[in-house]
Write a structure and sequence with these properties.
The structure holds 2 protein chains of 2 kinds. By secondary structure, chain A is an all-alpha fold. Helices cover 86% and strands 0% of the residues of chain A. Chain A is built from 3 helices and no strands. The mean pLDDT of chain A is 88. Chain B is built from 6 helices and 7 strands. In chain B, 39% of the residues are buried. In chain B, the strands form 3 sheets. A 3-stranded mixed sheet of chain B has the order 1-2-5. In chain B, strands 3-4 form a two-stranded antiparallel sheet. By secondary structure, chain B is α+β, with helices and mostly antiparallel strands. Chain B is 43% helix and 20% strand. The chains are: A mainly alpha, B alpha+beta. Chains A and B meet through helix 1, helix 2 and helix 3 of A and helix 2, strand 6 and helix 6 of B.
Chain lengths: 70, 156
């Protein structure tokens, strides 16, 4: 139980650290490229952390969800 | 809980059959953009083939128990069978050069352990811009920002 809680905290802390680093990089890109939208840059950097197959699956899952909403 | 994968082993088997069968093709469109990290949403995976009459394509399809349905005056070419449902065949790419010229620029993306030739993000942007269709133009800012992010990320 304690081990699980500890693992969760480590994972959450690592995720937060990665997100803060990603935000720093996204802000730097947007500062250098004023035409860029932060959200697009942020999501691209996030997707680049994933394997290509997972990027594709996320795109297809969202495409399917959008299609079902119509 | 994670959503089930839409692009799963059957689709990977189709890509593997194309690559191992030395079929000349490119993944294009928004699926290609997504593979390269663009925050793009799509419902299918567009494939551009050098030659739809290439016997190697028929062989790859046969290998996975699928078929090619040639175009008619009112329907595009289609694929049928296991692992092909998510794929569409593209006959022409707006704003690009010939297949042979574009395939030389292809970037190889490892998809589930298979090195798949993919149209580079810059060329996807060129194609979307060339169509002039509102739905293609609307995705351009996201694709261009993805290109900027990729370039900056590589410089880091």
């Amino acid at each position: 139980m304690l081990k699980a809680a500890s693992t969760f905290e480590t994972t959450a802390a690592e995720a937060l650290e990665r997100a803060l680093d990603r935000r720093r990089r996204a802000l730097a890109i947007c500062a250098a490229e004023p035409e860029a939208a932060f959200e697009n840059v942020w999501h691209t950097l996030l997707l680049l952390e994933l394997p290509p197959l997972e990027r594709l699956n996320r795109s297809l899952q969202r495409g399917r969800a959008v299609s079902l909403q119509r | 809980m994670d959503a089930p994968s839409l692009f799963s082993d059957k689709e990977l088997a189709f890509l593997a059959a194309l690559v191992e069968g030395e079929v000349s093709f490119l993944v294009v469109g928004l699926a290609a953009a997504a593979l390269q990290g663009a925050p793009a949403v799509t419902q299918d995976v567009d494939l551009w083939f050098r030659d739809l009459a290439d016997p190697r394509l028929a062989g790859a399809l046969q290998r996975i128990g699928a078929s090619y349905i040639p175009p008619t005056h009112s329907t595009p070419p289609l694929l049928a069978g296991a692992g092909t449902d998510l794929f569409d065949i593209v006959m022409h790419m707006h704003g690009l050069e010939t297949f042979d010229q574009e395939v030389r620029r292809a970037t190889l993306v490892q998809v589930g352990g298979i090195n798949v030739p993919v149209l580079p993000l810059e060329r996807i942007i060129a194609s979307k811009r060339a169509t002039g269709r509102p739905k293609d133009l609307s995705i351009l800012p996201a694709l261009e920002d993805a290109l900027r992010a990729r370039a900056a990320d590589k410089r880091d």
